[in-house]
Write a structure and sequence with these properties.
- 2 copies of one chain form a homodimer.
- Chain A has about 210 residues and is an all-alpha fold.
- Chain A is built from 11 helices and no strands.
- The first copy, chain A, starts with a helix and ends in a 6-residue tail after the last helix.
- Chains A and B meet through helix 6, helix 7, helix 9, helix 10 and helix 11 of A and helix 6, helix 7, helix 9, helix 10 and helix 11 of B.
- Chain B binds a DNA duplex (30 and 30 nucleotides) through helix 1, helix 2 and helix 3.
DNA sequence: GCAATTCCGTACTATATAGTATCATTTTAT
DNA sequence: ATAAAATGATACTATATAGTACGGAATTGC
C-alpha cells in the first residue's frame, strides 16, 4: 500500500472517530458538519472529499460501531465449557456490554433514527443482537441434545435469557435514568443463572 | 366556564392532537411548526399564542401521551381475581399495550430525545412503567403473603415478569423491524404465565 | 349593535447549517 | 526538482425553519 493510500485510510478513520463521538453525544440532528471539521482540526472541504453527505458520514459511523459491538460479544460463548459457568459468564459479559455508555448511545441513536433511517435498525439487529441470539440458541440446542437442559425450544430459552439480562435496567438506561434509580437493584448474573436453571435445568445434574 | 374559555380549551386540544401526530411520525427534528399549523388548518401566530416555543409544545404533547399510556395500563391489575388468570390477563394487556404503534412511537421519541431532554424520560418512567411496576409488585407481595407464591422478593418477580413480556419483540419493534422478523415468534401470554409459575409458583395449588 | 378578543393568512426577519468554491500550503510520487 | 494530489482556512451560496408583525375577518361578551 502506497503512503498516499495509507494516509488516506488514517484520515478516514480519524474522521469516523471524531464524527462518531459527536453523533453519540449529540445525536444526528444535534451534530453539525462544521463542528466535526473543527473537532477534527481539519476543514469542511476535506470532510466532503471523504463522505459525500452528512447521511453518508452517519451511515459509515453506525457501520463501524456495529462491528465493534458485535466483535466484543461474539467471543463470549464457549460451547466446550461446563454449562452453568458458561451461562453465568454469558450473562456477565452480555450485561456488562449492553450497559456500556457506548452501547447505550449507539442504541439510542438507532432507535431515535429508526423512522428516518429504518435500514440502520435492521442492519444493526441482524449483525448485532441477531448474531448473539443465534449463537446462544445454537449453544443451548447442543446442551438440550446432550440432555443437560430440558427438551424445550432453544430459541425460546435464548430469548428468555436475553430478556432477563436486558431486564429493566436497560430500559432505565435508555431513558436516561441512573442505573439504580429507586427502587431498583440490578440483578446479579448469578441470580439470573439460578432462575434460568429453575426454568430449564434437568433434575439430576446441573 | 365562558364560551371563550371553552373554545380556547378545544383549540389547545386540537393543537396538541395535531402536533402529537407529527412528533410521533416524524420525530422532533423532523416536525416543523409550519407543518403543524398547516395540518391544523390554522396559522402560526395562533400556535405561538398557545405555546411559547417548539420545545414547549413538544413537552405538552409528551405530557398528554404519558397520561394516556398510564391510564390504559393501570386499570389492568385486579388484586381480587384468581392468581393465574390475573397474571395471564396482565401479560395480555401489557403486551398488547406496549406493542401498539402509539406506544412504540412514544417510546422511540423519548429514547431519541433522552440526550436533549433527559427530564422527559424520567417523567415518563416514573408516571408510566414505574407505576405499573409498583402496582404489580404490590399485587405480588399480597400473593406471597397469602402463600400463593414462593417467598421471594416481589420486586424481582415483577421485573422478571415485565422483562419476559417485553421480551425481544419490543426491541425489534423499536428498531423498526417487523414484529415477527425471522426467526422470531412472539411468545403467548399463556406461555409466559407458565414460565412465571415454574419460577415462583408454590408446589400445591396454582 | 358595539367593543374586545381571537383567529387566519401572509409576508417578513433572523439564524443556523448543509454544501460549494477558491487559493495557498503541505505532502507524496517519479 | 517538479508535477500531482491532498489538506486547511476562509469565504461564500442556498435553503430551511423558528419566531414576529400586522391587517382584515370572524366570534364572543355586554
Amino acid at each position: 500500500m502506497s503512503k498516499r493510500e495509507e494516509r488516506r485510510g488514517e484520515r478516514r478513520a480519524a474522521i469516523l472517530e471524531t464524527a462518531s463521538q459527536f453523533f453519540m453525544e449529540q445525536g444526528f440532528a444535534g451534530t453539525t458538519m462544521s463542528a466535526v471539521a473543527a473537532g477534527l482540526g481539519g476543514s469542511k472541504g476535506t470532510l466532503w472529499s471523504y463522505f459525500s453527505s452528512k447521511e453518508d458520514l452517519f451511515a459509515a459511523c453506525i457501520e463501524g460501531k456495529i462491528e465493534a459491538f458485535r466483535a466484543e460479544l461474539v467471543s463470549v460463548l464457549d460451547p466446550g465449557a461446563p454449562l452453568r459457568p458458561a451461562i453465568e459468564g454469558f450473562c456477565r459479559s452480555f450485561m456488562a456490554k449492553i450497559r456500556e455508555p457506548n452501547s447505550i448511545a449507539l442504541y439510542r441513536l438507532l432507535v431515535g433514527q429508526s423512522m428516518r433511517a429504518p435500514e440502520a435498525g435492521r442492519i444493526f439487529f441482524e449483525r448485532g443482537p441477531g448474531v448473539i441470539e443465534a449463537l446462544l440458541t445454537a449453544f443451548l440446542r447442543g446442551q438440550v441434545e446432550a440432555g443437560r437442559l430440558r427438551d424445550e425450544p432453544p430459541l425460546e430459552m435464548a430469548q428468555v435469557l436475553i430478556s432477563l439480562c436486558n431486564g429493566i435496567s436497560h430500559q432505565r438506561l435508555l431513558l436516561g435514568l441512573a442505573p439504580d434509580h429507586a427502587p431498583y437493584k440490578p440483578p446479579a448474573p448469578k441470580r439470573i443463572t439460578e432462575l434460568f436453571f429453575r426454568l430449564y435445568g434437568v433434575a439430576e445434574a446441573t
